[in-house]
UniProtKB/TrEMBL annotation:
Record-annotated Trehalase-like N-terminal domain positions: 2-175
Name this protein carries in UniProt: Trehalase
Annotated region described as Disordered, given as residue ranges: 583-602
Domain GH15-like stretches: 216-580
Length: 602
């Protein structure tokens, strides 16, 4: 199946990836970055999956989320009748549950169930035993217990069942993870749990204060961000999956089940602007815990609990999605030096304070230490926003974000009267600004370029007006937008940089899809410049590539017309939310700053 043929369900601690064919092909338990017990997404069904579907030929399939929820409904039509499979993961009390309800809608439909449990990313065959009214699957530290609503049997190292569902019937299945050394808790009432989960999500989504156009898309993206939140700590993972390729058959396959500091600013703004102060506050607290300590050891990403070590490993027994190898867990980019995270961190903290999030006693002292370190390293080359794994470079975007760090520190002192060497920071801010304008702008190209003294374009420079570095009507900004339109939009969506020369930058095989967040940044640039018709047209084009349940990946291939990269992608959904808000103010002046920019015009 294509990536867009999937949806997710989750309990705000992990999430399952569910296909149009009724198969759950990816699930990590007990948390997002745990080893998968279903890994068919990156291999085949022998690596673990759980399918419930009709046995006869399926004439039509329809999917939707219950309005305002993460409760998924998949309907199958056959010649004999129609059936609905309802999937949900209730917010957990202790251990995670996955509930599936088969509902007869019309006629009498013969169904089949196939459960293939393989722990440790599809590599470990469990020991299966029957205990009273449920089955237990044991493997190392993990156990799954299944309470089926029908009789099951073992067949070829899998658990299968055939059953019939009639109109008005409901047949439940409950799967629960628990440590292998602990007994499963008592069976839950699956029908009551489905309804309770529906109410929980409806109450949560009803708190969104967004009232503008595209409310359905915005609320769905907010629900997706909530689904990507690790509730115990407040951390937000970049995606549910690992190793879904940026190019089919390629090696640009990374693990995104971790929390990037870079996402902090964008996610925090989106949550705050939608009225979710509690979630934004929890994310702020996660940030502070994660970065506390030696500022020289600041990482760009951490685990959902804030662990620093995320060793990258290849899993050779998994063939990869559509043979896109290698499959990786962990991410060695956590060891990279990326200057922009300082700016994003300072921007996030400034926004949090301005929004009235209750202050944290040690936050400013931590920020001061980070700024002291940044003073000594801002001029050094780094790995950049695109996490180049080879030699470091003087990336222009990185310097812009170093400017943001000092700019937001100055504004924090001026607006909130905290203590700091503001005059020294002003001198540094001015120095960085002058250097970016002198070295990062190409007079020949009339555009900002990827690195100092270089000639390549880079879509990250669309951030220049969004963070307030230059006003949107500055000719250098407009020249950069024109250049990106001319050279990085071959099919109506924005590429990160020239794919033909990308290997010269990151030393990986060239070629990838259009980066959806960059396209949303262009929407924001259009809105700032008063090009509202073009902004709305591009935004509509971006909305059209969502799958039928409203989800986006990291990238999109316009020629193959398919989604690429890990799924669903927090960055893409944050971009959608922020662009929708900016366009909702389209009747205002052209110089209106987007929601990602909280500073006064320079």
């Amino acid at each position: 199946m294509r990536i867009e043929d999937y949806a997710i369900i989750g309990d705000t601690e992990t999430a399952a990836v569910v296909g149009r064919n009724g198969s759950i092909d990816w699930l990590c338990l007990p948390r997002f970055d745990s080893p998968a017990c279903f890994a068919a997404l990156l291999g085949n069904e022998e690596n673990g999956c759980w399918q419930i579907c009709p046995t006869a030929e399926i004439a039509a399939t329809r999917r939707r989320y219950r309005e305002g929820t993460l409760v998924l409904e998949t309907e199958f039509d056959t010649r004999e009748g129609s059936v609905r499979v309802v999937d949900a993961m209730p917010p957990r009390e202790k251990h995670p549950d996955l509930i599936r309800i088969v509902e007869g809608l019309r006629g009498t439909v013969k169904m089949k169930m196939k459960l293939v449990v393989r722990f440790d990313h599809g590599s470990t065959l469990p020991w299966v035993r029957r205990i009273e009214n449920h089955l237990e699957f044991l493997g190392g530290p993990d156990a799954l217990s299944l309470w089926p609503g029908v009789e099951t049997r073992g067949e070829n190292l899998t658990t299968v069942a055939e059953f019939t569902v009639r109109e008005g019937e409901r047949i439940p299945f409950v799967l629960r993870w628990h440590p292998s050394y602990a007994a499963a808790q008592n069976e839950v009432d699956p029908l009551a749990q489905i309804e309770a989960t529906t109410r929980w999500w409806k109450e949560w989504s009803a708190r969104a204060n967004y009232k503008g156009e595209w409310s359905e898309a915005v609320v769905r993206s907010l629900i997706t961000l909530k689904a990507l939140t690790f509730a115990p700590t407040g951390g937000v993972v970049a995606a549910v999956t690992t190793s879904l390729p940026e190019r089919i058959g390629g090696i640009r396959n990374w693990d995104y089940r971790y929390c990037w500091l870079r996402d902090a600013t964008f996610t925090l703004f989106a949550l705050l602007d939608a009225g979710y102060v509690e979630e934004a506050s929890a994310w702020r607290d996660w940030l502070l815990r994660a970065v506390a300590g030696d500022p020289a050891r600041l990482q760009i990403m951490y685990s959902v609990s804030g662990e620093r070590r995320i060793p990258e490993t290849e899993l050779p027994w998994l063939r990869g999605y559509e043979d896109s190898r290698p499959v990786r867990t962990g991410n060695s980019a956590h060891q990279e030096f990326q200057l922009d995270v300082y700016g994003e961190l300072m921007d996030a903290m400034h926004k949090a304070r301005c929004a009235g999030i209750p202050p944290e006693e040690h936050a400013w002292s931590i920020q001061r230490k980070l700024l002291d370190h940044l003073e000594t390293v801002w001029s050094e080359p780094d790995n950049g926003i695109w996490e180049v794994r080879q030699e470091r470079r003087q990336f222009t975007h990185s310097k812009v974000m170093a400017w943001v760090a000092f700019d937001r520190a100055i504004r924090t002192v001026e607006r909130l009267h905290l203590e700091g060497p503001v005059e020294r920071w002003r001198r540094l801010r001015d120095q960085i600004h002058e250097e970016v304008c002198r070295k990062g702008f190409s007079a020949k190209r009339q555009a900002f370029v990827q690195e100092f003294g270089g000639k390549r374009l880079d879509a990250s420079l669309l951030m220049v007006p969004l963070v307030g570095f230059l006003p949107p009507d500055d000719e250098r900004v407009q020249g950069t937008v024109r250049a990106i339109e001319r050279e990085l939009m071959p099919d109506g969506f924005v590429l990160r940089y020239d794919p033909e020369t990308s290997s010269e930058v990151d030393h990986l095989p060239s070629g990838e899809g259009a980066f959806l967040l960059c396209s949303f940044w262009l929407v924001d640039n259009y809105a700032l410049a008063g090009r509202l018709a073009e902004a709305r047209e591009l935004f509509s084009r971006l909305l059209s590539v969502r799958n039928e349940v409203g989800l986006l990946t990291e990238e999109y291939d316009p020629r193959a017309r398919r989604l690429l990269g890990n799924f669903p992608q927090a960055f893409s959904h944050v971009g959608l939310i922020n662009s929708a808000r900016n366009l909702s103010h389209g009747g205002g002046p052209a110089h209106r700053r987007p929601q990602t920019e909280q500073s006064a015009p320079l």
